[in-house]
Design brief:
eight-stranded antiparallel beta sheet; 3 helices; alpha+beta; four-stranded antiparallel beta sheet; 15% helix; 224 residues; 37% strand
Length: 224
């Protein structure tokens, strides 16, 4: 459902933006966590305790999680370009530092970087719900993504299967060294999850306004 732009919508948005409470509460309720994984040359992340100190790679220096971008909402719908709609996106930006000395040791034999991106909903509103998540025609959940050497792109033309279990979304990405990507110093990686809310005013907005969203984000490198 989409409502056309009008003076009433712009007036309401002006009041919401002016107060800053609604949008600020969305951002302030997001907790960004980082899983303290280290990985050795041949060990898996789970076996990190057996890896010698000289072989350990600090993944926090390589994967730099940025603040997610959450859709804006009002009592009447998701706010998009001064319009009320029923669908919205959450974006998860990630900077991959390819200049770190440990980066090359994460690459597979075919020069590919593989990692798992895990998003855990730690709040009371169950947003990872079959009725809310955007699905493909075959019924699977997808995470769309983009990456660039210069900055975060909005060109989400690639997708990967997203596994949903117990309010946790997990995706595995594999990136090759296309056009000298790994020599760029930084890769700006951005993930998009889409949501569509039916019966928004009665069932969705009361829960969002009461508890907001709280998400924990983890990145785990896949051993070469």
């Amino acid at each position: 459902m989409q409502v056309k732009k009008n003076k009433h919508v712009r007036t309401l948005l002006s009041r919401i933006s002016g107060g800053g409470l609604l949008f600020l509460s969305n951002i302030s309720l997001i907790s960004i966590g980082f899983s303290a994984w280290s990985i050795g040359e041949t060990a898996s992340a789970e076996a990190q305790i057996k890896v010698g100190a000289a072989d350990v790679i600090d993944l926090q220096n390589i994967f730099q999680i940025q603040t997610p971008e959450i859709f804006q909402y009002s009592p009447y719908g998701i706010v998009q370009d001064e319009t009320f709609v029923s669908n919205g996106n959450i974006f998860f930006p990630l900077i991959i530092n390819t200049s770190d000395e440990g980066f090359s040791r994460l690459l597979s034999s075919d020069n590919t970087l593989s990692f798992d991106f895990e998003i855990v909903n730690t709040g009371t509103f169950g947003i990872f719900n079959d009725g809310y998540l955007e699905k493909s025609e075959d019924g699977t959940y997808n995470a769309f993504y983009s990456f660039d050497k210069e900055g975060f792109s909005s060109n989400f033309t690639s997708s990967v299967k997203c596994n949903i279990s117990n309010q946790t979304a997990t995706t595995r990405f594999a990136i090759g060294n296309t056009d000298g990507l790994f020599e760029s110093g930084r890769i700006y990686f951005k993930i998009r999850l889409g949501f569509s809310f039916s019966d928004y005013e009665r069932n969705v907005y009361p829960k969002l306004s009461a508890s907001g969203l709280s998400l924990s984000i983890n990145v785990k490198a896949v051993a070469a």
